[in-house]
Amino acid sequence: MTQKKKLHDEIEKVAYTLFESSGWLHGHDLENWLEAEKIVMEKHEKHAKEIEKEIEHEADVIKKIKKGFRKTDKKGGRVYRD
To answer: For residue 80, what are the β-bridge partners?
Structure first.
């Protein structure tokens, strides 16, 4: 299944949930769909930002490790500071 199809299906499910929660009120298909798009896209944006923060944090940790340890004893596998 493509990413686009997965996103469409997720929006469809949320739109249907909105339809159910309105008491099965007909005639608001477009409004439900647009609200569902907003909900799903905000969820995905939030998730993407969380992942971006995790990656930035991991990159900072790697930089600190590389900066703090400069020499490696290849035989024993030990890392020494200068």
So the answer is: 71
- Say how many C-beta atoms besides its own lie within 10 A of residue 16's C-beta: 13
Q: Report residue 67 as tokens.
A: 């900066």
Distance CA 26, CA 56 (A): 46
Amino acid at 9: D
Contact 72, 80 (CB under 8 A): yes
Domain residue ranges in the chain: 3-73
Looking at residue 65, its pLDDT comes to 80
pTM: 0.68
Name the token pair of 37: 């798009």
Answer for the pair 69, 79: CB distance below 8 angstroms, yes or no: yes
